[in-house]
Specification:
This protein is an alpha/beta fold. It has 11 helices and 13 strands. 34% of the residues lie in helices and 26% in strands. A hairpin with a 3-residue loop joins strand 11 and strand 12. Bound molecules: adenosine-5'-triphosphate.
Length: 307
Amino acid sequence: MITAKALHKSYGDKVAVDDLSFEVRPGMVTGFLGPNGAGKSTTMRLMLDLDHGGGETLFDGRRFSAIRHPMREIGAVLEAKAFHPTRSARDHLRMLAAGSGIRAARADEVLEFVGLAEVKRKKPKDFSLGMAQRLGLAQALLGDPPTLILDEPANGLDPHGIHWLRDVLSSLAAEGRTIFVSSHLLSEMSLMADELVVIGRGTMIYNGDVQGFVRQFTQSTVLVRSSQADRLAAVLREVDGVAVEARPGDVLRVSGVDVDAVGELAFHNNIMVRELTTQTASLETAFITATAAAEEYVAHQLTGGAA
Ligand SMILES: Nc1ncnc2c1ncn2[C@@H]1O[C@H](COP(=O)(O)OP(=O)(O)OP(=O)(O)O)[C@@H](O)[C@H]1O
């Protein structure tokens, strides 16, 4: 269990992390989500006592700096390419293993596990970003730690690699580990996470399960198809708070009412319905709604006149 309490960090006048508190529970993957510049990396550095700031983070009741063999307790990767410049991938891991009292053979095991066995004698500086991410994960797993903290581990992975990572993280979580992974991409997170901590401009926007996030930040609509769509639209528009949008193909998109009520109204008014479904907005829509006001970097229209 990770307990982050009142984390805070300012750079001059700029507040990067603003009184952030949350818990990360074992046995599941918790996604740490926020737009670019929201404060995810800064939060992770604060959690690992790599940065000075306010608040504290406890890992099963202890601060990171108080843990004797951190690699055996917390596998953390904050930068994908932070490897020794001249050593091979294998030697890099063996060196780290030796420093933490981990047997040397473990380096080969984790390299095999992340799919880098064939390139283990190559230098990481020649690795692609995706290979570096795999090596980062190997490094995090070296001490077989019960807790993993990974900053943007899917960055640079191809779709196949992202699915692989999802399977790896969920099987590691199923073993009872505590897993905290950041991303600025909802599409990745929706594949990987069970729980979410969503931040914007350093403050908490949402903490809870993925479905709850969608429920809180999206409105589901009802799609109904009927050859008497005009009549049904008129009936629905008489209900308070209901909005109806006519779509091509005798379809109505209805909001402000649930699917049961639409079915009942149609039945009582003798209107034949051929299709009736609830449409829930995607996680991507929920993310954009939730973080719109908190976006750090907003693109603006380019006005001409370069010459
Ligand atoms: N060393 C620094 N000096 C000044 N400002 C900084 C420094 N590091 C981060 N910041 C600012 O703090 C805020 C949070 O940055 P951080 O890198 O933690 O965000 P992030 O959520 O990890 O972003 P991204 O998804 O783009 O990696 C940003 O506005 C950033 O510009």
